[in-house]
Amino acid sequence: MMNIALIAHDQKKEKLVEFTIAYEEILRKHTLFATGTTGKRIMNATTLQIHRFQSGPLGGDQQIGAKIANNEMDMVVFFRDPLTAQPHEPDVSALMRLCDVYHVPLATNMGTAEILLKGLQAGFVDWRKHH
């Protein structure tokens, strides 16, 4: 069982909800975390149980970053909106940097997220052994 963070910028929340609906059976087998509004929207659309942190601008990205730094997060799915300036962009950059530093797979779009979850479903979790 993996710890998976689910995050989305406002303009990408609906896409992340659609993603979690499509992959609900895979996600159900793992412990899920999300920033505030995103987690609420996913829980309203699915039967998934999600530990919700603060919203991203209020520190949720940093809370997930702390889990990464403490080796308590295995994967991050973060549907970013690259075309809209985000007021908390430094937090977003720090979260992405932590994923790189601690070798945590990070999907920032639907294509990459699908590949990661299909790999997870197939049992390809060896990256945790190399961490």
UniProtKB/TrEMBL annotation:
GO terms for cellular component: cytosol. Belongs to the methylglyoxal synthase family. PANTHER family: METHYLGLYOXAL SYNTHASE. It comes from Lysinibacillus alkalisoli. PROSITE patterns: METHYLGLYOXAL_SYNTH, MGS. GO terms for molecular function: methylglyoxal synthase activity. Substrate binds at H9, K13, T35, G36, T37, T38, S55, G56, H88. HAMAP family: Methylglyoxal_synth. It catalyses: dihydroxyacetone phosphate = methylglyoxal + phosphate. It is an enzyme of class 4 (lyase). The active site is at D61 (proton donor/acceptor). The keyword Ribosomal protein does not apply. NCBIfam families: MGSA, PRK05234.1. This is Methylglyoxal synthase. One of its GO terms (biological process) is methylglyoxal biosynthetic process. InterPro entries: Methylgl_synth, Methylglyoxal_synth_AS, MGS-like_dom, MGS-like_dom_sf. The gene is mgsA. Its EC number is 4.2.3.3. The keyword NAD does not apply.
